[in-house]
Write a structure and sequence with these properties.
The chain is mostly beta strands and 111 residues long. The protein has strands spanning 11-12, 15-18, 29-35, 44-45, 50-56, 58-63, 66-71, 75-78, 84-89, 94-100, 108-109. It starts with 10 loop residues before the first strand and ends with a strand.
């Protein structure tokens, strides 16, 4: 069993970073995203699947050139290699749990 607290995780950009390899050597990593209006990552991709659980707020996504909006309660499955970006829209923060199917983060930024 391994236990840690969110506030003890590194905070970079708009996310706390849980790197599975550093916490009990588990096979997943997680971004705990808390983006203010207008914030979010630019186009990027990963060599593994990512599952985004949207907890609060609304956002606008672009996945492989398709634009759409999603909000609290939506679950997005982004497949390995799909180019994606998103940002918070609306007055409240976009809060989500982004599960990366890898013990470390591997991200190719495209801008």
């Amino acid at each position: 069993m391994h236990r840690t607290r969110q506030e003890d995780l590194p905070f970079l950009g708009s996310s706390h970073h849980f790197v599975g390899a550093d916490h009990g050597d588990v096979g997943v990593s997680v971004f705990l995203f808390h983006g203010l209006p207008g914030r979010g990552p630019g186009p990027h991709r990963h060599p593994y699947d990512e599952i985004q659980f949207i907890r609060e707020g609304r956002g606008r996504w672009n996945v492989n050139g398709a634009d759409f909006e999603a909000g609290a309660g939506d679950i997005l499955v982004i497949k390995a290699g799909e180019v994606h970006s998103f940002k918070c829209i609306g007055p409240e923060p976009l809060v989500q749990v982004d599960l990366h199917m890898s013990p470390t983060f591997i991200q190719e930024n495209l801008e």
